[in-house]
Amino acid sequence: MNILPRTRTRATMLAAVLMATSAFWAPSTFAQDQKPLVIARNIDLNSLDPHRAFCDTCQIYNSSVYESLLTLDKDNKLVPLLASKWEGNADQTSFTFTLDPAAKFSDGSPVEAKDVKWSWERLKNLKGSASFLMDNVASIETPDAHTVVVKMVAPSSEFLNIAAAPYTAVVNSKVASEAGAKAGADASTTDNAEAWFLAHSAGSAPFVLKSYEPNSEVRLVRNDKYWRKAPALSEVVIRQTKDAVAQAQMLQSGTADIAMQIDPDTAKTMTGSDVKIETVPSYNFIYVALSPGAKANKVPLTPEVREAISLALDRPSILDFTIGSEGQLISAPIPLGFPGGSGFEAQPYDLAKAKELLAKAGHADGFEMEAAFPGMNVYGVDLSLLMQKVQQDLAKVNIKLDLQPIPFANWRERINGDGIPMTAVFYAPDYYGTSQYIEYFAMTKGSPWARRAGAEREPSVLNPKESELYKAALAASGDEAAKLWHQAGEEMIKDRVILPLVSPNLILAYKSDVKGVRYSACCNLPLAELSH
């Protein structure tokens, strides 16, 4: 999933939040905010059902139309949303949330504990992309209308962060149930509400869905019954605009107020005093991955061979070639700014040692290797150009890459099937928590990348230490948990299956009269904080 910045540089971000309520707006400002704010972006929505949605735009939509129990402030600190207070027990196996009694849905009905229980059970039982967030939940109890007690299968110091993810949206259970939504164990086969959610919403957030035109736009309007401070904007339109150049043209022509996916090269061409460009670090990164168990391997990708490949990658040169000063190198598959994500040493570039390792493994003359990857541009990086640079680097140690850019759907089928010897792809967080990186990238039995690395065919790729550190970190909290996450990151570096390369910056481009634009670790772009 996809987009989010480093805590120590957040002071450089535009974090101005509208502080005045509608009662104190000057008439001219109020009139101006009646004009829809238009956001140009490539809309990647897979669903408007908040428990089926799983994408970058979904983060914006879910957090604008629905609410979670908690959210994050601009410094990634947990703050109240639907829950006014919360606490966990000492061993991180039980969490109690007290709902704000003032919270109400857009139809005026109160948000109650039964809605939280129903929503989270539905998320889990739909068995969709974000259902994994509830995998560790054993039970949800509702002792009264304003209390929710969540019992975990195993300790999880991450659950409070998960409760701030927009995918844990709380839905009006009565309204959604009447529309065919189900939360029972058979929800994945009996729920038929997805079509209803394309034209309706049932949340408690500052906005409600007005209309959705696939491949065209999503239109939101102010929730007049919002229980907190009303948003400044009366209407927001997210307009389908596929590429950065078209988004920049809309922004400069005045037909858009915010352009969300401007790349560094396009940003350099944008002029005009009424356009503001802000560059902030992101939590997204692009990586190369190796599959020791891929059926197409021509030689065994032993630890020595994988280390040689890593040593042959000239990472500073790769950074220069792709995004230059508009990003940074990343050593472990844990972003800077996440717990345990800082302090990793830069990965070495050593052609002599790479050749020595290859000779030791019996490949002094090199070998050929298939490299299939999604043929797309992501976060301003063209993966085809990136892999051409990787191809040039590896040629210096006589590894010949057969580059195969393919559609993303085909890539997904191949990587999850017979595997791909080498690939390049990208990752963005689903919530503000480090456990997702160990769950996804670690060489632990059953993890997505252990499967893609061919652990069933090549079990030597598994790393038991990562499982131990994962469990220990989930049972810890604070600095102790961060220390354990960092140790897990060190182990993932040693695996040399996931080779992170670059973390591109995010470019915020918007009209100078738009206030409150910032990049959020949970919600992407918080619409309720915007005004113009």
From TrEMBL:
GO molecular function: peptide transmembrane transporter activity
Xref: Gene3D superfamilies: Dipeptide-binding Protein, Domain 1, Dipeptide-binding Protein, Domain 3, Periplasmic binding protein-like II
Record keyword tRNA processing present: no
PANTHER family: PERIPLASMIC BINDING COMPONENT OF ABC TRANSPORTER (PTHR30290), PERIPLASMIC OLIGOPEPTIDE-BINDING PROTEIN-RELATED (PTHR30290:SF10)
Subcellular location: Periplasm
InterPro entries: Peptide/Ni-bd (IPR030678), SBP_5 (IPR039424), SBP_5_dom (IPR000914)
Species annotation: Rhizobium loti (Mesorhizobium loti)
Solute-binding protein family domain ranges (all copies): 77-444
Keywords: Signal, Transport
Sequence similarity: Belongs to the bacterial solute-binding protein 5 family.
The name this protein goes by in its record: ABC transporter substrate-binding protein
GO biological process, one term: peptide transport
Cited Pfam families: SBP_bac_5 (PF00496)
Single GO cellular component term: ATP-binding cassette (ABC) transporter complex
